[in-house]
Every structure is written in structure tokens, then in C-alpha cells.
Amino acid sequence: MSRSAHPAGPRHGDVLPEGHYTAPAADLNVLDPKVWARTVARDDDGVATVGGIQVTRLAEEFGTPAYFLDEADFRARCRAWADAFGADADVYYAGKAFLSRAVVRWLHEEGLNLDVCSGGELATALAAGMPAERIAFHGNNKSDEEIERAVSAGVGRIVLDSFQEIVRVAHTARRLGRRQPVQIRVTVGVEAHTHEFIATAHEDQKFGIALAGGQAAEAVRRTLALDDLELTGIHSHIGSQIFDMAGFEVSARRVVQLLAEVRDEHGVELPEIDLGGGLGIAYTSEDDPREPYDIAKALSDIVTRECESAGLATPRISVEPGRAIVGPTAFTLYEVGTIKPLEGLRTYVSVDGGMSDNIRTALYDAEYSVALVSRRSDAEPMLARVVGKHCESGDIVVRDAFLPADLAPGDLVAVPATGAYCRSMASNYNHALRPPVVAVKDGGARVIVRRETEEDLLRLDVGE
Ligand SMILES: *Cc1c(COP(=O)(O)O)cnc(C)c1O
């Protein structure tokens, strides 16, 4: 399989030969705006800055490892998505990518809606004042407690994921005296070009109800028959880190086909269609993501065309970008420790974090870039592998990267595009203390999620 057959970042281990690496950039000091947050630059002293603050100062004040999130970039991306989709569509930020109360407030202020998929995410959303009607509740195994909390909070939609759930949500709604708006998540049988561990639209997977074999049509039948549920539309999510719109085209066509069947059978035109998230970002300079405006236009053209040919009014579209909003807005700052040159192979550069703050490389073979950010260097490029400090040989942060050959312990390196699925998937492996998330904006920096402490660890350890 060629690289172009796999436009998604995470690739199967067998796609690229072991030891694959691209040529070094002409100048390792350049911070490619494609992969770095919008306000990141290198100043006259050669030190990288974000929001106008030098990373060396940030490291002094907040320590390393730490995630630095460019608030202006985050807000700008929210606005770009909202503007691109306009008044006839809804943008739901996928909270699992990264969620904190500050983020919820930004989303609220910028007019976005929010996807949650657990009681914890729902609690965070509500605690930060997100209006319940702008929250969608997802998940393939929602507990009774979670359903009850979602219904009683009055969430704008629950996305039904199984036949059992149709009945469970209806019972809860009846008990609480509410009519709950719901969508049905269908699996359309589209495989977006992505790693199988994170692709979610194969038939052989845990999410959703298959269109195939009339399953989804049966789910619609059962849902429409229950007065406690208000079926507003059909939901589909086809994968992650997708660049090619072809998968969405097939998925939209199949969902619209179902809407037409529903009209023919029940005389009902469902008013909504949710095409999910999964839009790709640039992790390296070789990735070429599309702008929200192009994506919005492509999706709306597809849906409009399919609906026209099925004789349906165009439903209200929603999308659920997570990574595409928060991913590019943050970088992880690490301090370099042990450096081991392995003759004829590569140089192993150890940093003070690793798989506990970024599991994606180990989990999905994800690719990242990395740069020396505490100073300029005009030394020759050396082939490096950036590894963490965990007791695991798969503890790799950046598999193949070029760093200047004069790299030394104490230097700061940063890995861009770590806003999504890094802090949210962070662990305490080896009793690592999960790093803080620091929001940077207009020359000011503030902690929005603080660093864990040893007291935090010991608090959970009852000691018996
Ligand atoms: C994970 C997920 C998303 C967000 O995916 P991104 O790749 O972060 O855009 C959106 N919708 C659903 C249902 C998801 O499971």
C-alpha cells in the first residue's frame, strides 16, 4: 500500500517500512504554520513563542512536560467552523478530544454545541454552564445513571446506539415525564482511510446499528413507535483523521437513502442528518488538511444533491469535529534528558514525559513532528527518535524526526498538534503525574487543568 492510499495520519505498522523517515526540512529552525498553533513564532533570540510568550519562560513558570494551548487559535477555529457551516447547520465539538471547563466556556461563547460520551464529560459541560439543549450525548454503552442524568438535564439529543438503548431511553424519558429528542447512529459500511483501531464504520464493530440487512430501518420503526422519543434524525460517523471527502459522500448517500425509505414507509421526513467528525489535521508538514469552508461546502453539496435526487427537503446538517478544532491549537513542551547516539541507526532523545502524555504514537503508530524550541541551532540535522521515560520500549513520542545534532540535555523540544487525544488519553503509567494544560493568550498564560501532584496519586490509594 502506498502512502497516498493512506492519507490518514495513523497508519498500519506494515504500511511504512520500519525506519521510514522523510528528508530533513531545509531549515530545522522553521516552525511550519501548518502544524503549529496560530500564534507560535520564533523570536529574534531564536526562542519559540506562543501568544507572545517565550517557551523558556513558560517552562520556568509551569514546568515540563506541559501542554500549551493557544486560546486565540482555539476560538478562531471555533468561529471558522461555525461560519463555514452557517445558520442552517450545527457544529458540535467532540469533547472527548479535550474537555475542561474553560474549553466549555470558550465553546459556549463562540456559539458551538458540544458532544459528550460519558457522565464525566456531561458533568464537566454542565458545570461550566453549557446549556443542556446544546449538548448531544453519545456512547455505545450508556449506563442507566448516565441516561437518567442526560434526560433530566434536558440534553438536546441522545444518539441511540443499539436496539436495547431505544427502550432504555424511552423508559427513562417516560419516568421523568419528558419527550427526549434522539438520533439513531447507523453504521453505513464505509471505511474511511484510517487505522482499524480508530475507524468506526465497519460493520464489524461495536458502534451503531447497521444499515445493512434492514437493521437501521427497524430501529427507526421501533423509535417512531415510542411516544417518549422524538426521532429527529440519523447520525453517522465514519472514522478519524480523514482527508478525503469520498467516504462522506458514500455515507451521506446511504443516510439519505434511509431518510427516503423512512418517508416512504412512515410518511415522515426526518429533519436532521449528522455526518459525525473525523476531519484530519496536519501532524507533519506532509499532511494537507482542508479548510472548514471547503469541508462545509463539500458536505452540504453532497447532502443537497442526494436529497434532491431522492425528492426530499434538505435536512439540517450537523458535524462533530474534535481533533480539527483543538488538535492544532496545542503543543507539548518537554525538556531533553538522556541522549543516546546509536551508531548507524539513529539517536534516541529522551524527554521528561512520554506515552503517559501522548499514547497515540504507541497506540496508532501516529506520526508527529518535533522541534528544538528553546534556541536556534544551525547544526547538521541528525535522525532522532524522541522517546519518553516510561518502562516500555514502545514508549515513543516521535518515531522519526530530524533534530539538530548539537541537541543537549536541558534543551526544550516541543511536539505540535497535541491538542486532541493527548491530555484526554493521558495516564498515570509508572505513577507519572499528568501534565497541566496552560492556556496562552495575548501575552498572558494561565493553568486551565493543573498538573497532578503526588498527593493526587496518594489520595486515591487508600493504603489498606
Ligand atoms: C470521536 C468522535 C468524533 C470526533 O472525532 P474527531 O476525529 O476528533 O473529529 C465525532 N463524533 C463521534 C460520534 C465520535 O465518536
UniProtKB/TrEMBL annotation:
It is an enzyme of class 4 (lyase). Pathway: Amino-acid biosynthesis; L-lysine biosynthesis via DAP pathway; L-lysine from DL-2,6-diaminopimelate: step 1/1. It catalyses: meso-2,6-diaminopimelate + H(+) = L-lysine + CO2. Gene3D superfamilies: Alanine racemase, Lyase, Ornithine Decarboxylase, Chain A, domain 1. Substrate binds at R323, R360, Y364, E392, Y421. GO terms for molecular function: diaminopimelate decarboxylase activity; pyridoxal phosphate binding. The active site is at C391. GO terms for biological process: lysine biosynthetic process via diaminopimelate. Its EC number is 4.1.1.20. Residues 72-327 form the Orn/DAP/Arg decarboxylase 2 N-terminal domain. SUPFAM superfamilies: Alanine racemase C-terminal domain-like, PLP-binding barrel. The modification N6-(pyridoxal phosphate)lysine is found at K96. Its cofactor is pyridoxal 5'-phosphate. Pyridoxal 5'-phosphate binds at G278, E320, P321, G322, R323, Y421. Keywords: Amino-acid biosynthesis, Decarboxylase, Lyase, Lysine biosynthesis, Pyridoxal phosphate. Residues 332-419 form the Orn/DAP/Arg decarboxylase 2 C-terminal domain. The keyword NADP does not apply. Specifically catalyzes the decarboxylation of meso-diaminopimelate (meso-DAP) to L-lysine. HAMAP family: LysA. Belongs to the Orn/Lys/Arg decarboxylase class-II family. LysA subfamily. Homodimer. This is Diaminopimelate decarboxylase. The gene is lysA.
